[in-house]
């Protein structure tokens, strides 16, 4: 229930890094209170459950100096982080802040801010106040991540007595495993990506969004080409709003499908790659559908 002050109660403490009127309002509406306001050269205290980082408009040099320390503190204490960033800050911020306890918002609405702070309050190791429907939402989100990871993992299981076959039992589709997989061509994967993009010419793009799979395809094609994909490039490949793409990237990292690889030539940037398990699953899927005479979709 809404309290007189405008929020849902006061149950978790926030350390606010940087300044933003919208950020402060979102914290209050989510039911939290600002325990401390920190400058970019400050260090958060231990009382905060959530670190809210207002990076939009902050100079790159300042972020480059401050983010490693903030990330280390959040990781060591098991604190959740909500960071608001601009599009051109994606690579810089994601190089340090990316993971299961991090929510990155790119030019968010107030509603997106409130939801992010409320969900973050239930992610950290320190118990925080979250309304029951937000706890349920977080539980469903975690279950969905686990479901996706499970589906991909089953694609590479050996078909022992029909148990691990790549199939949809409701429709009766199955493909027998080959002794050796034929090489997958990056050009085939790229054609699939182009074909998926063409759907937007005939349907409202919001009705055919599938960012997680699009990003898996993009990283798979780049792996085959021995290329490198920055976080911002992968957001573009997802063809959805940056905040949505970043949310999916965080889910895929948490699910063990994507891994972050530092850029040896620029410490302010990181690349994303498929984990060995995700790579094996994509190879298994591509080989299975081709042997079944089906397209990669």
Name the features.
five-stranded parallel beta sheet, alpha/beta, 10 strands, 44% helix
Q: Rounded to an integer, what's the Rg over CA atoms?
A: 21 Å
Largest sheet: 5 strands, parallel
Amount of beta strand: 15-25%
Number of alpha- plus pi-helical segments = 10
Mean pLDDT: 76
**Numbering strands along the chain, what is their spatial order in the largest sheet?**
2-1-3-4-5
Structural class: alpha/beta
Order of SSEs: EHEEHEHEHHEEHHEHHEEH
Low-pLDDT regions: 1-10, 126-132, 152-179
The total count of strands amounts to: 10
First-to-last CA distance? 45 Å
Outline type: elongated
State the share of residues found in helices, binned by percent. 40-55%
Q: Can you describe what's shown?
A:
It is a single chain. This protein has 297 residues and is an alpha/beta fold. The model is unreliable at 1-10, 126-132 and 152-179 (pLDDT under 50). The N and C termini lie far apart (45 Å). The strands form three sheets. Strands 2-1-3-4-5 form a five-stranded parallel β-sheet. Helix 5 packs across helix 10 (276-291) and helix 6 (186-197) packs antiparallel against helix 7 (211-225). It has ten helices and ten strands. The radius of gyration is 21 Å and the shape is elongated.
């Amino acid at each position: 229930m809404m309290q007189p002050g405008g929020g849902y109660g006061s149950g978790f403490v926030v350390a606010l890094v940087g300044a933003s009127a919208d950020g402060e309002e979102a914290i209050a509406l989510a039911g939290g209170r600002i325990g401390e306001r920190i400058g970019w050269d400050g260090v958060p205290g231990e009382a905060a459950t959530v670190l809210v980082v207002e990076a939009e408009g902050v100079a790159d040099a300042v972020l480059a100096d401050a983010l490693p320390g903030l990330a280390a503190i959040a990781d060591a204490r098991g604190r959740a982080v909500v960071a608001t960033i601009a599009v051109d800050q994606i690579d810089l911020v994601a190089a340090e802040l990316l993971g299961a306890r991090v929510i990155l918002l790119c030019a968010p609405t107030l509603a997106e801010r409130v939801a992010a702070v409320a969900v973050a309050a239930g992610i950290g190791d320190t118990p925080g106040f979250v309304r029951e429907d937000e706890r349920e939402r977080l539980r469903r989100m975690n279950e969905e991540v686990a479901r996706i990871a499970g589906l991909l993992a089953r694609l590479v299981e050996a078909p022992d007595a029909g148990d691990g076959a790549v199939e949809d039992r409701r429709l009766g589709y199955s493909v027998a495993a080959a002794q050796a997989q034929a090489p997958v061509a990056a050009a085939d994967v790229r054609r699939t990506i182009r074909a998926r993009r063409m759907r937007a010419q005939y349907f409202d793009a919001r009705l055919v969004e599938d960012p997680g799979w699009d990003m898996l395809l993009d990283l798979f094609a780049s792996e085959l080409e021995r290329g490198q994909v920055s976080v911002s490039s992968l957001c573009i490949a997802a063809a959805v709003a940056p905040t949505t793409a970043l949310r999916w990237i965080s889910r895929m990292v948490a699910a063990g499908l994507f891994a972050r690889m530092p850029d040896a030539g620029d410490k302010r940037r990181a690349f994303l790659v498929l984990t060995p398990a995700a790579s094996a699953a994509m190879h298994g899927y591509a080989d299975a559908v081709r042997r079944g005479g089906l397209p990669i979709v």
